[in-house]
Amino acid sequence: MNKTHQIYIPYTIIEKTLQLIKKYGKKFTEGFVLWVASENSDFYKVKDVWEPKQQNSFISYYIPEEEVHKLNVKIYKKKLILIAQIHSHPSYAYHSQTDDDYAIIHLPNLFSIVIPYFGNIDNSEFFEKCAIFQLKKNHWKKISKKKVKKTFKILKEE
Length: 158
Known about the structure:
Blueprint: E1 6-10, H1 11-25, E2 32-39, E3 43-50, E4 55-56, E5 61-62, H2 65-77, E6 81-88, H3 97-101, E7 111-115, H4 126-129, E8 131-136, E9 139-142, H5 145-151, E10 152-155
Parallel strand pairs: 1-3, 1-10, 6-7
Antiparallel strand pairs: 2-3, 2-6, 4-5, 7-8, 8-9
């Protein structure tokens, strides 16, 4: 992703994302999922939420290297693009040093979304409650709410 295109997200993707994240939250652990998308010359459309094998604790998650490799192969074979990594925090949404150090996304302009309160937020408030970061020059930069609204478009119907 060389520049930031608009990203279209079916509402069902938001629902599925929070459903999976809340599953971990019920165990009082952070959870992690990925959004994969198809590319058009002008925009991306999120096609699915993938839940990799992971090890979770109250304050962290870990995706084993062999699982990251499997995900990359699957993305390549399906001709999709990894557009965002999403994980939860027990309280506020921010990008910790651990999040920076163990991100599985390493390509510029892709996203890391942090969901507060183990995912216990309303589906309709997803982008208002989450903290959204974009990888810029090997650094995760929080993007403004204005840029979030410009970049991410929720599709009510598929």
